[in-house]
Fold:
Amino acid sequence: MSMTPLPDAQERVMDLVRPMETAAVPIGDARRLVLAQRVVSEENIPPFANTGMDGFAVRAADTSGATPEAPVALSIAGTIAAGSVADRPLQQGEAMRIMTGAPVPEGADAIVMVELTEVDADDATVLCKAEVAVGNHVRPAGDDLVAGTVLFEPGIVIGPAHIGMFATLGMTDVAVVKRPRVGVFSTGDELITGPQPLGPGQIRDSNRPQLLALVAEAGLEPVDLGWLPDDEAVIERALRDGAAQCDALLTSGGVSMGDFDFVKTLLRRLGEMNWMQIAIKPAKPFAFGTILGTPIFGLPGNPVSSAVSFELLARPALLKMMGYADTQRRSVWALADEPLLRNPDGKTHFTRVRVAESIDGPPRIRSAGGQGSHQLSGLAMANGLAVIPDGPGVQAGDRVKVLLLD
Ligand code: AMP
Ligand code: MG
Structure:
């Protein structure tokens, strides 16, 4: 069977999935989701002119000529805390003590910050030690947003500051592309979970926790669907149940050439299924398709392979389901600090590397550790995947494209 070039595989996977429908969610649940409505400010933000400093509200003209040596004395006509308003307008020759965020009283047009003032012992008079201009430290109404401004258009990815803006505007819910629920299975008779001693031939299941974390980190909702034995009937039941509960499924293991690789055969029987050998290392085998209309990604079992397969194939498709326009990891050109050698084999290699920024040039990379597809420790030390084209590898000083993992 010939190997499929990675871009072809990626295109076929992307063609399989569609963005989720839209729904209103509480603004606190909207992080990482794609906005599906226009957001307009109905009000001025800030809603009223207020002070950006603790100090005294004054008429700028009254401070004319004030210096530290020759301060101007103004009579204190009250105190305005944030959340309250002055009980009367400010008159000529007066100052009102005012706290950050409090409304500037009628009649005042500037703030003298507290550091430039001195209050006399009986709290009746304040000495202003500097002349201030009209508008000094005053934040006018609508200074952030004028009523009627279109703030956000559909399509943006919602982050913490957007959520803060929704709250500022008094929104409780926001229309978004729904967050997909992604079910994760591990398969393999050799797998156990937990601290108990390993029996002969057993290893601990690392893919399921890793994939659940990758799903969560990409902004989707992970659903732990547990472990499956290498038993075709059990796997079939579990995949059907999972497909009914979730918007997408991930399995690990059971998609290569072994005698007990039932995921592959099952997918072929149950759904519209594609199985391919992709021209990459690690993560050559990959199965994908739909079961009961739910997309399913059959990732390889080796721990590094399942993670790299997720990165290159599942993650972009899942982000497309989230409604993202940009589904790709950021990539940079880096300089190899050491040779990253490989053998020609018709595949693109994704070498686990440490990427270090440098102040006077491109980032630098070094191998992050063992490069075997079973050597998860090397991936755990890595923050990038260096894309090493087919051939003998790269020499120290060569330019290399790197996908950034963080
Ligand atoms: P398979 O693709 O099922 O043939 O598995 C390939 C390799 O990955 C074998 O060495 C498995 O033991 C290992 N493997 C499969 N699933 C997991 C898992 N969930 N956690 C750790 N290793 C796994
Ligand atoms: Mg297996």
Summary: The radius of gyration is 31 Å. The pocket of adenosine monophosphate (ligand 1) is lined by residues 186, 188, 190-191, 203, 205-208, 252-256, 258, 300-303 (CB under 6 Å). Residues 303-321 form the longest helix (19 residues).
